[in-house]
Amino acid sequence: MTTQSTIPSPRSPYVRRKTTRGNFELYSWVFMRGSGVVLLVLIFGHLWTNLMVGDGVHAIDFGFVGGKWASPFWQIWDLLMLWLAMIHGTNGVRTIVNDYAQRDTTRMVLKGLLYLAFTVVVVLGTLVIFTFEPCPPDAPANLLPSFCPTI
């Protein structure tokens, strides 16, 4: 009985395995680089506005957030920061799960939990950004922040 070696000869030509994933991993890699650069701008703009302008960290309270989110510019800014950070982080954790989870079932469960967490955070964060109302119309005046108009 002859045994065949499972390791190819060092002089044999490299045979590339065909994958069915297409260029997804390439696009994922490019996205990580692009989103990282955009996130740097968004995060440092966010930090500069919140910490360096005005009274700094001492000015951040409910009224500050309410006043900031009254502007569509800051709503879009924070929405982009939320979505890009979540997609960027989810893609990074997905790569780690693919690299280190050895069993298909483990990989599937971990990625399922990851995508569920991503969905919950993005949906709730988006709802908070666009439905935040610091001055609800029927609220008692003593519970409203000082910047709300009294009627």
UniProtKB/TrEMBL annotation:
It comes from the Bacteria. Keywords: Heme, Iron, Membrane, Metal-binding, Transmembrane, Transmembrane helix. Gene3D superfamilies: Fumarate reductase/succinate dehydrogenase, transmembrane subunit (1.20.1300.10). Pfam families: Sdh_cyt. The chain crosses the membrane at residues 26-48, 74-93, 113-132. CDD domains: SQR_TypeA_SdhD_like. It is found in: Membrane. SUPFAM superfamilies: Fumarate reductase respiratory complex transmembrane subunits. This is Succinate dehydrogenase hydrophobic membrane anchor subunit. It comes from Isoptericola luteus.
